[in-house]
Amino acid sequence: MIPKLNPELALDASIVAFGRALLAAGFNGDIETSYGSRLAVATDNSVYQALPQAVLLPKTTDDIVILTSLAQTSSFCHIKFSPRGGGTGTNGQALTEHVVIDLSRHMRAILEINVEERWVRVQAGVIKDQLNAFLKPYGFFFAPDLSTSNRATIGGMINTDASGQGSLVYGKTSDHVLALKTVLIDGNVLKTHKMATFEAEHRAQMPNSIGHIYRQVLASCRDYREQILEKFPRLNRFLTGYDLEHVFNDDLSEFDLSRIITGSEGSLGFVTEAKLNITPIAKFKCLLNVKYDRFESALRNAPFLVAAQATSVETVDSKVLNLARNDIIWHQVKELIADVPDTDMQGLNMVEYNSEDSADIEQKVAALIAKLDLAIANKTDGIIGYQLTYDAAAIGSIYAMRKKAVGLLGNTKGSQKPIAFAEDTAVPPENLADFIMEFRQLLDSHGLHYGMFGHVDAGVLHVRPALDLCDPEQEKLLRTISDQVVALTAKYGGLMWGEHGKGYRSEYGPAFFGDELFNELRKIKAAFDPRNRVNPGKICTPYYSADQLVSVDGQKRAWFDRQIPVNVKQSFDSSLNCNGNGLCFNYEESSPMCPSSKVTKDRRHSPKGRAGLMREWLRLTEQQGFDVLANERQLTVKKQSFGELWQKVKNSLAKNQGEPDFSHEVMEAMEGCLACKACASQCPVKVDVPSFRSRFLQLYHSRYLRPAKDYIVGNIERTAPVLAKFPKLVNFVIKRDVTAVILKKTVGYVDTPLLSVPTLAQQIGEKYRFDLTRLQQNPPAANAKTVLLVQDPFTSFYEAELVADALRLLEKLGFDPVLLPFLPNGKPQHVKGFLREFANTASNAAQFLNQLQLLNVPMLGLDASLVLVYRDEYTKTLADKRGDFNVQLLHEWLVNQTLPKADTASDFALLAHCTEKTALPETEKSWQQIFNKAGLGLKPVSVGCCGMAGTYGHEAQNLNNSKTLFDMSWRSPIEHYGVANTLVTGFSCRSQVKRLVGDKPRHPLQALLQALPQE
Length: 1015
Hints:
44% helix; Vanillyl-alcohol Oxidase, Chain A, domain 3; alpha/beta; 27 strands; 6-stranded antiparallel β-sheet; Glutathione S-transferase Yfyf (Class Pi), Chain A, domain 2
């Protein structure tokens, strides 16, 4: 029985009092102080971890004014704060042990757009891709293109002065900021924009903190202008922290205080709104993927590509390419990055051209291709081949692969993982190849593996050495390498931080700036934040302050992870491997990745959040002396005693009375998971929440009683066949209002589905009856046309007409379909954590299916969520006892069959089940090919989760989220195409449409059956 976990991390009384005072003062945002909520923002995409005292999530600028004004009172003037956006930083910029101000949940409004003047005004929590989706219909985009663009906020981009692909043409975030609204720590609101210098001098006369800020920045940037221009290297990536150089224009006639705030890493105030210039979308694009024999060849060839007037030149090495080959993303790009025959591709440069003029782009591309052909013919420059495409979707797929490189490196096998700490060095592009070669020698001298990718056109390469920071000696090596890389970048005239900011590397700032200029930074910090209360320790501390900067030696996640036994870490590697990349924060409503994260906007309810909670739970149980793996083994063989049951009753009573236990917080996050498994394939490091969720549920319920709904779901495969013997009676009872009330109040279930009437047996009779003896006795030739249809509980008992239609379709295609007897699959048991019962179910099913496998006859299933359990959960649970049986989904088999032409041509829209299309990325393409064979049109529609996800949508506690998820991405296409023309592969998805729209869409096989020639 798991122990009660109560971390000794009581909140400071003043933090509790501050929260109460905030509410009394009219603060409308969220205030979160639970251990789980704080853990969710204790990490980012760096190696560091810092647990804050509280998380405040404001809804408006006024909320931040309220909290900063309140923070000036004597009771709360000691509290410190750090602003946070998407939490994608690689150097701990937003991590703090104080109070986090998270602007990403609520402040997501796009406030105003002016197409004529080409600007947009947004709140700080707006996500980069969200903004570009809004701008696209107007023909514009916000230019800085980040690898984290689907979860990075505009506020975060401003605070790190983010850039990315195409920065030679499009510049950095600071080049696009027209105006900012920033709340200062004293509660004043500072509005900044470009102005005449004399106007800035006028503002400097103001008698408040704003006047002091203008006076100090004017003095620092004007009086030290010569030293600033001499000190900072002339690089596209000029990130300095506080951008002293670009506050003034060349002749000092214009002044823009926003340039100091942009790149300040939240250390000067809280940016709440931004006015940004926007860029027209180029009408014509072309991408050339140039392939090389060595990565060094790709680097040395980059200046030649830039000279060919390319818009951008991106690069990846062979390590990233090979990792991509094993990821779901490869299915989108493999035809665009084909291997060169008889040659080992070790590097790739992605060369993009954008233009408003088709003739211009054709001319540039033709000129480059001629040179590439010559190099290949002469075997020079290491160029071994190239491919080009003008297709916008294909170009997007290539860049999706490139953007995923960060996460993919985290999926490297073994305990040593490529990590970020010296990964965004910037040197003049002409020095890049020599710099990287010496960088590689440095890493080779330490015997390290590494991956590389980046923006060779700007001289920025992301280099991630592989270290196991759970090893104290390798943690020391991080410091050694970090120091060496600082010296190396200086040698080549570059910067340690070319793109991702300083964060915990702030200690290197004084050496880069020199004492005189660094003191000016400190004076500016003092003007904005005299008592060092805003993101303290980052970039610099106030002048005259004795406070220290953060250090690369700061506390790391690995310090906590090394407290977990190695065998436990290996067993729970799906959660321990999470590197904080945050791809699961993907805002896109049409993406299947983590629907619970999208609908709640709560970091706990994401794969990263759940993985973080799980790893902390494992650490705390180890502190209590609890052997997780031994207890799991015991739970799989030992039944519960009466004494244990009675203890669970007492524990549950204590829980209901409010007894604290961190396990309850973990349970809350796990219950919010839809178990869709999109994370298992979409996450670059394959964080599989449903797998460790099931294990946690089993362990949790060794201490606390299970709710009745768990038993109902876990036993559905036993009860459904019995209930289906009396479907009319059961449905009559279910339809009664009193039944609905009882189920909702006692079990927590709503909208209970009705059994099929007529039943499957009534629809098909004995026609497709299974006779194992007959099949075994038939010669192979006699069984050549035999196809076995594997039943699942949902379609067989709640959608029997689909199973009957599948049998009829197979028969119409000339096959001899046989319906296998219903045999429980076990997925409902696995979802609810009945793992002992699941193991027995899986063992029985595998034994039967392996017997059928000997017949060498295709076995087909209809519902992906059930069929895929045979491949994943069965393999993990049964291991070598699983056998080699293979149950295919209908489309996997059907795509290889010959189909007759339909009587009439028709077009349909396809909405695929999220589990199916993420685990089997060829699903939509296969259905298209099947329909094309029949002369039918099929258009896959990009949608996220429908919100049902098995029984999730039937649980009363999830009802609102379930409906919201449907409205987010499903309702619009259903209404646009109409239910009659929409085909849906998932049982739960069809049920959700029926529940919320009123009509039930068909499975693709039903449309095929109806369209094919009638006998």
